[in-house]
Specification:
This protein has 4 helices and 5 strands. It is an alpha+beta fold and 145 residues long.
Length: 145
């Protein structure tokens, strides 16, 4: 949690350490709750199979990003904004969605990627620029379901 707090605070020198720490705690806590709620199995692509054949209700990557987006947006952080991002958009087996945290007024490309799906509920986070696994694009029009 400390690494995420430091990464979030690095988005802007005006971000209070206590707010970055609270956001980090909220992200980790919500990820734990969603892991239980989605009855997560591993690896993530197997869980996707279970959702697609109706044996699980949720747990696809966009379920994670949407749930985190809605939860964190409702908390109304003074220093942060939340955005949805996608990679390989439109490619059925390869499309991936995640949440991006930015400093107020910041650019998605300079944000922190939050991706609990990738490692089956173990929180992956990175700067968007440093995520070598995907090339992310802002999805402002996608909306949450």
């Amino acid at each position: 949690m400390t690494r995420l707090t430091i990464l979030l605070q690095s988005l802007d020198s005006n971000i209070p350490p206590s707010e970055a720490e609270q956001l980090s705690k909220d992200i980790f806590h919500r990820t734990q709750l969603l892991t239980k709620e989605f009855a997560l199995t591993s690896p993530p692509v197997f869980h996707n199979f279970l959702v697609n054949v109706g044996l699980r209700d949720k747990g696809l990557c966009f379920h994670w990003s949407d749930a985190l987006y809605i939860y964190l947006s409702e908390k109304r952080y003074a220093s942060f904004e939340f955005h949805l991002a996608g990679a390989n958009i439109g490619e059925y087996f390869y499309e991936h969605n995640a949440l991006v945290v930015v400093a107020k007024g910041g650019k998605v490309e300079e944000g922190v990627l939050i991706d609990p799906w990738r490692d089956s509920g173990e929180l992956f986070f990175s700067t968007v620029k440093n995520d070598d696994a995907y090339r992310w694009h802002h999805r402002p029009a996608r909306g949450c379901r």
